Amino acid sequence: MTTRAKTQRRSCLSLPSGREIEVSVRHSRRARRIVLQVVQANGTVELVLPRRVSVSEGMSFVRSKVRWIQARLDQVPEGVPFADGARLPVVGRTLTVRHYPLLPPGTRREGRDLVVGGRAEDLPRAVMQWLRGVAQAEIAARVETMAARLGKNFERVSVRDPVTRWGSCSAKGSISFSWRLVLAPVHALDYVVAHEVAHLAEMNHGRRFWAHVDRLCNGSDTGREWLRLHGATLHRFGRGQV
Ligand SMILES: [Zn+2]
Predict the structure, then answer these.
(1) 201 & 159 share domain
(2) CA 46 / ligand 1 centre spacing (Å)
(3) Tell me: the pLDDT tens digits for 72-104?
């Protein structure tokens, strides 16, 4: 993990397409060279500079890379805003968001529909809360089953929204997951849960650890591969909200 310096600023950049974007710029004591990154999860552009490099030098480096930046941004999957008609793959089933403004506020599943009442401006938050609730329940149930199979106790399960990781397990046995896994294929969800539960037995990625993962989850390789190839697409949900 990198420690985030306090001094972070934003600079504007024009792309060849004419689009204006913001680049987040920060200095890092540990950086040995200029690092330019387009975060595929959310399409943000980050520039990390060694202390000896000024912001204006850094930005001229960025301007020499605009074509590369444009190409990377073009690969960022388009957002799927939470709105009436949005289709969400929830634990392997595609649900369609249906907004009924005259119904009282609340979200519930009816067959293949996700029925949301209340004001339109509250809908994105309501859908997100509902998804997080489903994620918490689905993941906690899986953790319980797998931890029992492994004969290990865990402290608690929580869901969050990290940008770069799908799960983590503390030495004390607190396990946290990205709620977005609920939008992934079930085998990818199962793989991440198996991975974190296996850390209750082995706090490393050694041979015994992977043997536990394989035992807890059939076809863990395909789940792992799916996340490697398509994991960033899970961040498109709820993006592009107006
Ligand atoms: Zn791990």
Answers:
(1) yes
(2) 26
(3) 998 888 899 999 999 999 999 999 999 999 999
